[in-house]
Amino acid sequence: MQIGGLAQATGISRDTLRYYEKRGLLRARRSDNGYRDYPEEAADWLRYIRTAQALGFTLQEIEADLPLLTAADGDPASTAAALRDALRAKLAEIDRRIDGLQVLRAELARRLGAPLAECPLQAATAG
Prior knowledge:
- InterPro entries: DNA-bd_dom_put_sf, MerR-type_HTH_dom, MerR_fam.
- This protein is 70% helix and 3% strand.
- It is mainly alpha-helical and 127 residues long.
- The chain has 2 domains: 1-56, Orthogonal Bundle (Multidrug-efflux Transporter Regulator, Chain: A, Domain 2), CATH 1.10.1660; 71-127, no CATH class.
- A two-stranded antiparallel ribbon has the order 1-2.
């Protein structure tokens, strides 16, 4: 798939695709005429990147998972086990974030339910 097709399939600009390629997040083969040729799986990988970013992960965090996802020269069983371990770690991190967000949400809801005079945010803006 050429860069224009991948951009259209994913809604990601060509400039962003080139940036991802420069960072090593995306790989393309070069055809005889020099055009980039992306594998079909590139669209799925880009959707993963965008979803992870939307959930608050940085490109650096996403890049940390990349060697596991692209390691084709190693033993498939050990690569699969390493990937499962990385996914378990990511799930645990997401669960910790969810727990923290639930605590924050409960605190905000409690403050909104409190009389304004008792609300530290209101007191700080009133003075």
